[in-house]
Amino acid sequence: MDFSLTEEHIMIRDAARDFARTELLPGVIERDEKQHFPAELVKKMGDLGFLGIMVDPKYGGSGMDAISYVLVMEELSKIDASASVIVSVNNSLVCYGLEAYGNEEQKQKYLTKLATGEFVGAFCLSEPEAGSDATSQATTAIDNGDHYVLNGTKNWITNGGRSDVYLVIAQTDRSKGHRGINAFIVEKGMPGFEIGPKEDKLGIRGSDTHTLQFNDVKVPKENRIGEDGFGFKFAMKTLSGGRIGIAAQALGIASGAYELALKYSKERKAFGTEICNHQAIAFKLADMYTEIDAARHLVMKAAWDKDQGNNYDRSSAMAKLYASKVAMEHTVEAVQIHGGNGFVKEYHVERLMRDAKITQIYEGTSEIQKIVISRSLIKE
Ligand SMILES: Cc1cc2nc3c(=O)[nH]c(=O)nc-3n(C[C@H](O)[C@H](O)[C@H](O)COP(=O)(O)OP(=O)(O)OC[C@H]3O[C@@H](n4cnc5c(N)ncnc54)[C@H](O)[C@@H]3O)c2cc1C
Asked: Among 362, 371, 373, which is best to mutate for testing ligand 1, by the most ligand atoms less than 8 A from CB?
């Protein structure tokens, strides 16, 4: 067993760390406050190859592995989880979905632009009445010869108002249940496709979350991904990899909060000594470090499973379940270690605490991860 990183891994991790500190950090409080989508920074992340990390260079990607991807996600998320969710959705839901299951024309037309950051992508599964229960799709895509007619509503869509390409899941044949579901590539500006208002969120406020409306949108047949009826499997397979990205996001939020708490505890004095010398604080740091490192091992194991071609449904669910719990618990502790300063924006930990919560909700809630894990155990 070899836990060491390769030179290439260290290089990309350091590039992401440097970018996060020099480019993401300066405006992060303001973007959070104003719910400002970091369009210029997304462009720069595209230039650095962060938007298509695992995509084959022949489609404009960086051609790196899933370990590299989680290293980038952790570093970006330490500073700005709103920026990292853009990276996560684009890489592991949109680019991966197209590269693994799209045909050559779709890859040439869309993936080449998504991998370089020329385009941003969105993944549209959730609906007002279909969240955890994603099989209850009310959005319909009716076969009409050379095109499908798409009708329905998607909600909570990350990059919703800022994307060029939307992967949309819809029901084509209700009599076939989830085997009658398809996935489609929908382009911004197709007639009948409307973007609803932006959500005002607790956390990841710099990310752009919208409800989308499809009113008789004509989607060409060649925009269907995979065989007829493949859409639900497409969504589940893609989300499995997405969970590795969100687990890494949670890990980054937790480790970012830990780093701030450690530094603060070595500077702040109370009762004549730095607060890290009080055992109550020192033990919090020990628990944080230990559990964050345990989360990191789960995240790395899931990424390694993906790189090895192993099934990663269970390991990605475990990584997301645990890393998101650690992120939530330890960002609260980081606020506590900062005392009153933890409660104000300037010290960053209150934002990390708010950002942590979403990692227990999207791409499958923690309860859904437990269903995935327990089912896979019982099936064995
Ligand atoms: C900021 C943000 C960004 C998002 N981005 C996207 C995106 O880009 N694309 C997209 O498609 N979706 C996105 N989502 C949607 C997200 O994936 C869903 O919110 C999530 O899957 C939960 O669905 P729901 O909100 O309908 O909750 P519900 O499914 O209604 O769940 C409510 C509660 O019931 C629990 N529950 C439900 N079923 C069970 C069960 N069988 N057993 C035990 N407990 C259960 C849940 O765990 C949860 O605690 C985003 C959401 C948010 C908030």
From this structure: 362
